[in-house]
Amino acid sequence: MLYLDSGDYEVKIDRLISIIIVLLRRERVQAKELAEMFDVSVRTILRDIDAINLAGIPVVTYQGVHGGISIAEGYRLDKSILSVGDMATIVSTLKGVAASAPDSRYDVLVEKLKIPLSTSQLELLELKSRQMIIDLSPWGINGQIQGRISLLRQAIENRREIEVIYVDAAGTKTMRQLEPYSLLLKGQSWYLYAWCLLRQDFRFFKLVRIKDVQLTDRVYQSREIPAAEQGYFERQWKERNSLVELELLFDKEMESVVEECFGEGAFWQDDGRIMVKAYLPENNWLYGYLLSFGSGMEVINPPHIRKILAAIAEKIHKTYSS
Questions:
Q1: Any idea where the HTH deoR-type domain is (predicted)?
Q2: Which of these, 53, 90, 251, 295, is most buried using a 10 Å CB contact count?
Q3: Greater pLDDT, 82 or 225
Q4: Can you name the CATH fold of 143-240?
Q5: What phi and psi, each to the nearest 5 degrees, are found at residue 69?
Q6: Can you say whether the dihedral through the CA atoms of 226, 229, 233, 235 is positive or negative?
Q7: Structure confidence by residue, pLDDT tens digits, 234-266
């Protein structure tokens, strides 16, 4: 077992893993090159090599003009049990997540996956990973959201409280002290799942509504949440958002829009129109979403949504007819 007495434990572990990856990818590397690569002294690199040896990976140092450091000839790490197709799926998914929430650790993980592959397998992996491209980022990258995700991940990993100004769906601003637990990507929008000290409960907070994030020095004790339970976040989402059952009637010319927005769970009427039943959270977003379908859609139920949309449409008419 490898014992590290360095105060900077995580940094050293990351460096050791990175050195192993470099040695697996290259036949021989100079200690000076490794020192420059990781911005440490040659002496530190040599100590790292000793630590890697103690961990059971035989690293050999060669002297002379063509000398350097390499993993002993004939030594092999266990081959991955994943096929190239499996790896291509993982790589595509990692790249998709990285597009929405950049993190250098995704790049390192991709390189780790490539370690046991031969040149021909690497070429096949590159080909297959281009056959399915996953991009979870919305159109028009929001740099503020990406920076906020980075800060929140730091808070989650270190169990640090944060202070934010949160703007709810009604436009009301409140100062919140939060204990952040999870980041959730749902419907191309990022949410923070956190314990709210103001409400004394777990809540979802949409990242675009979080303003002025401040990372505090206060460390919180983790609260028990059944996060690993199947469907937990989905149930919490429904409980925390007031869902309304909608009956929407679309003109037959809206068929492609219906399939895009609601899937294939629609019902054709005798007159050619399309009936859709959906459960959505009732808030200002919902009213705007329903109005976005224009005159090609009519809300059948519930009646109070019809009245709200009629009032909004009347105000719009007055604004543009004046």
A1: 12-71
A2: 251
A3: 225
A4: SH3 type barrels. (2.30.30)
A5: -115, 135
A6: negative
A7: 666 666 666 788 999 999 898 888 887 887 667
